[in-house]
Amino acid sequence: IYSAELQTNTIIAMLTEDKITEIFVMADEFCKVFNVMLCRRGLSESRKDRKREYHRDCRMSQAEIMVIMIMFHSSNHKCLKHFYVNEICVRYRHLFPQTVSYNRFTELEKSVVVQFVIFVKKCLLGKCTGISFVDSTLLRVCRNQRIHMHKVFKGLAQRGKCSLGWFYGFKLHLICNDRGEILNFMITPGDIDDREPLKIKSFVEFIYGKLVGDKGYIGKDLFSKLFIDGIQLITKLKNNMKGGIRSMYDRILLRKRAIIETINDELKNIAQIEHSRHRSFPNFVVNLIGGIAAYCLFPKKPMINLERVYDNQLTLF
Fold first, then answer.
1. Cα dihedral across residues 20, 185, 284, 271: positive or negative
2. Of the four, 59, 123, 152, 176, which is 20 to 30 A from 257 by CA?
3. Whole-angstrom Cα distance, residue 192 to residue 119?
């Protein structure tokens, strides 16, 4: 686990012009292919079919909007407006010559939701190594005292309970490998059980080997379902459960589960995926995906050094 000072210096070093250009080229190539696929399937809206033909096309491209969100979550800025007005429109104006006003930029965020999610899923996530960790973290959208007055996520966010107590918002479910790379993620309302995403085949489609989780993932049916798909679910036991036999290697993996807790901490405290200033659900998704994309592009990630030794030694647990 790296110190806050070291991680901050690493993130600032990421904001070089070469790195920004590399991210833009990657995003721009993806958006071009994605838009072509939409046109072939007849899902894109042509200009002739629009009701208001006098509206001009946006000056900023979809790739530019995605890159700006990644840059914001990779920086130390807490306010998107301050970052956009003082950094993008001044410091990086030569990289983004066709900038628009901040109000217009927040409106354009909604147009890249689908592209941004698929871009992160297809281009930035890591690959399974046979050792994976799963966990969920809460995403509060307001304080508990303001639940009855909250209107932005009414009907979407739900009350939930975790080890930190009651909250109102969503849950972010993550799967990572032993190298600190995110393998998959899912957003659910706050009242959804942690085990439900693992029952969805698309969430664990590319996972194999050992999957380590906390006590919230204990379930006989879930263990059997994942075992059929080639996944061995490893969890600690509750205090009222009977003990059993477990290999020493599995016990070591349970001790190393803190790696995914570190990832959740970096996503919240460095990438800033959680705040209570959202004004629409699409912008909430763009902000969340921007933080995940920024973490995937961090040059250094928390990781564990494990030697895969096939040991037949069994211990009681």
1. negative
2. 123
3. 26
pLDDT of residue 9: 41
pLDDT of residue 237: 81
Q: Give the type of residue at 112.
A: V
204 burial (CB, 10 Å; 0-12 / 13-18 / 19+) is: buried
For the chain, give the mean pLDDT.
85
Q: Three-class SS string for 282-300?
A: HHHHHHHHHHHHHHHCCCC
Reported as a single tens digit per residue, the pLDDT across 32-68 is 999 888 888 776 655 444 555 545 667 889 999 999 9
**Tokens of residue 236, six digits:** 């600690």
Tokens of 317: 């647990």
SS3 212: strand
Listed residue (173, 175, 138) closest to 158, CA to CA? 138
Q: Among 74, 157, 138, which residue's Cα sits nearest to residue 274?
A: 138
> Regarding beta strands 314-316 and 182-189, do their DSSP bridges make them parallel or antiparallel, or are they unpaired?
unpaired
Residue of higher predicted confidence among 113 and 49: 113
Q: Are 96 and 28 in contact (CB under 8 A)?
A: no
